[in-house]
Design goal:
With 589 residues, this protein is α/β, with parallel strands linked by helices. The chain is built from 17 helices and 22 strands. Strand 20, helix 15 and strand 21 form a beta-alpha-beta unit. The N and C termini lie close together (12 Å).
């Protein structure tokens, strides 16, 4: 469907860029900012909660010391390899951990470092450590943007004039080829490091999340290590070994008020939350509406409205909302039945290295049930290194051999991994179900599995029309694999169960991430929007923006929306709403 051209106010004079009202608002904003800064300087420190903050990996990790000087940490722990990561969804962080661990096999002592926890002005001094090198795992987010934790480093590396001669480095870039600026951040980091004199030890690797990023990564690193070994005179044929990063501590009779129950970073933060809200401190937003948008058919698309009144959360049309989901409780129970452990046992995983930047892989102490529901990803296909590690706990040789082959990096192994794991979409639970002799201890499995990440949705509302709520438009992911297994989207299937009621609406942890995706700055400018299916979501917000302006008698430019659906009678999203805009002369064919 080609749906709609918007126009209004053609007989009104064009408004100037800046008017008296704009100047007055700007002056008022300056006054407010000055007052706010003065108040903060004089009010003293905020009263702290009686519970200490606990930072977790991917959310800004705990530090072994208060210093951001990674060089000092490397020298004190005798490390000569540092692997930096800029990660939004956790993949770059996971790859960084794997590279640091694999470096140990070749005699390199590795440190994994979150870029936002490091003073990167120390980077030129890395050459002070003999036979040292740096690896950068850099994800590109959105329209060529750095990840949140890499923003400061990205700004520095773009503008620095530091002499980086003597620094040895490699870069692995992560992105998605369906976006215009594919791997833009990783490529820029690679170019800038070389530009200022650093020595590239191996070509920049590139992983495509729209394809098979695991295969991209494995293929690249299998060629990386021989090049590194040749440079430093290391033994490239060293035997592989299993290394644990965390030890298990089981807690008996622990005060349950000190046990995490799903919070992202601070104990009891969901009960006593206060702004500002972000990925480390999400807001528990009540769901006020959850309705079906499809009129018929076997597919489902939900319109969900979250109440943000009183939260001080601000958003713009085009921004993203991130929601932390929960894993399916039945799947968690199935894993417990397979590996025979008590879901309600409280435990901690504690880093073996006292100087490590993260003390726990996720908030601890918690129960195994909490860890599996909230903190680790048990639904995605496991990476090859997970298969390799769990093969050590097998008792049937054919199953052990099959796992080792898929993890080997050989062409035949890659093909089998792609067929048996990726195309069949086997989760770790289904791998263990299909290979009953593989019986890893739950603490090692929790160490291996990646963190359960927030899911991002385009906001499908405008703050001009809905200042106290955020709307999302989400298709329910629900299908059967070629093996006949039923697969549900972790976030959408969980959200589908969140049906509001007046007395006790369900709440979900969320935060807003700003986006560069915006309608034209000048409302008089024409706009063409193309959004098939749920691609309509952000444009609904743009249309609402302009609808409010029309009501206020502002002049707007032509706005053309191209929208597609399978069958108009089934899945024409927001049909009545869009028709209403047409009837009000906001839109005309």
């Amino acid at each position: 469907y080609i749906y709609a051209k918007m126009s209004e106010g053609r007989n009104q004079p064009e408004e100037p860029w800046i008017g008296p009202l704009d100047i007055a608002l700007a002056l008022a904003l300056v006054v407010v900012v000055v007052w706010y800064v003065w108040r903060k300087m004089h009010e003293g420190r905020e009263e702290k909660l009686d519970l200490p903050p606990i930072r977790v990996p991917g959310m800004g990790s705990n530090r072994a010391s208060s210093t951001r000087n990674f060089l000092e940490r490397m020298k004190s722990s005798e490390k000569n390899l540092i692997v930096f990561y800029g990660s939004q969804t956790g993949t770059a962080e996971e790859f960084a951990g794997r590279l640091a661990k694999e470096g140990h096999r070749f005699g390199l002592r590795g440190l994994v470092a979150d870029l936002e926890d490091c003073d990167m002005e120390e980077l030129p001094k890395l050459k002070e450590i003999e036979n040292s090198m740096a690896i950068f795992c850099m994800a590109t987010y959105g329209e060529g943007d750095p990840t949140d934790n890499a923003q400061e480093f990205y700004d520095w590396i773009k503008d620095t004039d530091e002499d980086l001669s003597g620094l040895r480095y490699v870069v692995f870039a992560l992105g998605n080829k369906t976006y215009e600026h594919y791997n833009a951040v990783g490529r820029l980091v690679d170019q800038q490091l070389e530009k200022f004199g650093a020595e590239r030890l191996f070509e920049c690797g590139e992983g495509d999340d729209d394809g098979n990023i695991e295969e991209d990564f494995v293929t690249w690193k299998e060629k990386l290590w021989p090049a590194v070994c040749e440079k430093f005179g290391l033994d490239a044929s060293a035997e592989d070994e299993s290394l644990r990063d965390f030890r298990l501590e089981v807690h008996e009779n622990l005060d349950m008020s000190r046990v995490f129950t799903g919070e992202m970073a601070r104990l009891k933060s969901y009960d006593r939350s206060k702004p500002p809200f972000d990925g480390k401190n999400p807001y528990m937003a009540p769901i006020m509406e959850n309705r079906e948008l499809h009129k018929s058919g076997d597919r489902s698309c939900m319109h969900i409205e979250l109440d943000i009144s009183g939260s001080k959360i601000r958003y713009s049309a085009g921004d993203h909302i991130a929601i932390y989901p929960q894993n399916n409780a039945a799947t968690v129970q199935k894993l417990a039945d397979l590996l025979q452990f008590d879901l309600d046992q409280v435990f901690s995983l504690v880093n073996i290295d006292d100087l490590a930047s993260k003390k726990n892989p996720f908030p601890c102490p918690c129960s195994f049930r909490t860890a599996l529901l909230h903190y680790v990803d048990i639904a995605s296909p496991p990476r090859t290194h997970v298969l390799k590690e769990i093969s050590r706990y097998g008792t049937t040789q054919s199953e052990v051999d099959a796992l080792l082959k898929m993890a080997s990096g050989s062409e035949e192994g890659k093909s089998e991994y792609n067929e048996w794991i990726v195309k069949d979409h086997r989760s770790i639970v289904e791998v263990l179900e299909d290979m009953p002799s593989i019986h890893p201890p739950i603490d090692h499995l929790l160490e291996l599995l990646p963190r359960l990440q927030a899911r991002y949705f385009s906001i499908s509302s405008s703050p001009k029309m809905y200042p106290e709520s955020i709307h999302i438009t989400a298709v329910l992911v629900d299908y059967h694999t070629r093996t006949g297994r039923h697969v549900e989207g972790v976030a959408t299937s969980w959200l589908a169960t969140k049906r509001p009621n007046e007395n006790n609406p369900p709440k979900v942890p969320m935060f807003v991430r700003k986006s560069g995706f915006r309608p034209p700055v000048r409302p008089i400018s024409p706009a063409i929007m193309i959004g098939p299916g749920t691609g309509l979501a952000p444009f609904r917000g743009f249309i609402q923006d302009r609808s409010v302006l029309v009501r206020k008698q502002h002049r707007i430019g032509d706005t053309v929306l191209f929208f597609g659906c399978r069958r108009k009678a089934e899945d024409f999203l927001y049909e009545e709403e869009l028709d209403e805009y047409k009837m009000s002369i906001l839109m005309s064919k």
